[in-house]
Amino acid sequence: MSQHATVVPLWETNHPYYCAEGNYYRNGNHFAYDSWADFQAEWGELDPDLNLVFRWDWQRADPADYAYELEHGEKLPPDTLQVFWVLQRKAILRSTECIVTEADEDAVRAWLTDRAAHMRLLWGPLLPDFCRQHAALPSARPADTGWAVETLWRDGEWRSYWPVRHTRDEAHQDYERSHQTNHEYRVVRVTTTYHVEPAPKGPRSTP
Questions:
Q1: Using an 8 Å Cβ cutoff, are 180 and 166 in contact?
Q2: pTM (2 decimals)?
Q3: Beta strands of the chain (E only): which ranges?
């Protein structure tokens, strides 16, 4: 039996807790833009090491909070995308906010995916490999073959940088996007096999 993950729209994603805008110790570190295009023109291609994205929030107004305004013919505020940055070389926190629409989601998702992949480099040793499956699957299931981009770490080991893709063309698109940073990359073929491990013998535990 195959399972398909449901893609949750970015505006329906609720992150735990929140992050304050700007910088507690320094004014002038929150920047607002009238559109996704305006934001991208200034921030979209910044070096991901010098300008590390550690959080994002797609903000959508709750109509219940604007009942009075709606009753008087006013419109809800537009959606906004908040992005939170740390300038690692200077230890500076910054945040940005830009107006977005649902039509921007594909572009926003692609850009955030790039940034998430870079963040994974900082936590890679503690995260499961993209190629590794944790659920027990039927032993008769054939091996899966895909393509992935790997990056060379300082310890000389190659590790996954992007999720495994179904086709080589998709992996090469990831490869092209990866060259925004000064790391070494390669495209590799990934084969994943599955097996079923027997349950340990012993008395059953009761809830």
A1: no
A2: 0.61
A3: 30-33, 52-59, 80-87, 92-99, 144-152, 158-160, 185-192
Sheet of 185-192, strand order: 158-160, 144-152, 185-192
From the CB of residue 93, how many other CB atoms can be counted at a distance below 10 Å? 19
Q: What is the 3-state secondary structure (H, E, C) of 169-204?
A: HHHHHHHHHHCCCCCCEEEEEEEECCCCCCCCCCCC
Give yes or no for a contact between 83 and 96, defined as CB atoms under 8 angstroms apart. Answer: yes
Residue 70 has pLDDT above 80, yes or no: yes
Cα angle, residue 69 at apex, residues 68 and 74 outer, rounded to 5°: 155
Neighbour tally for 53: CB within 10 Å: 20
> What count of other Cβ atoms lies within 10 Å of the Cβ of residue 39?
23
What whole-number distance in Å separates Cα of residue 108 and Cα of residue 99?
12
Sign of the dihedral through C-alpha 9, 12, 14, 18: positive
Tell me: the pLDDT tens digits for 125-173? 787 654 443 343 344 444 566 777 787 877 777 877 777 777 777 777 7
How far apart (Å, rounded) are the C-alpha atoms in residues 81 and 63?
Answer: 18
Can you tell me the distance from the alpha carbon of 86 to that of 95, in angstroms, rounded to the nearest whole number? Answer: 9
Q: Per-residue pLDDT tens for 19-56?
A: 999 999 999 999 999 999 999 999 999 999 999 999 99
* Residues in a beta bridge with 98: 33, 81
Q: Which residue has the higher pLDDT, 90 or 160?
A: 90
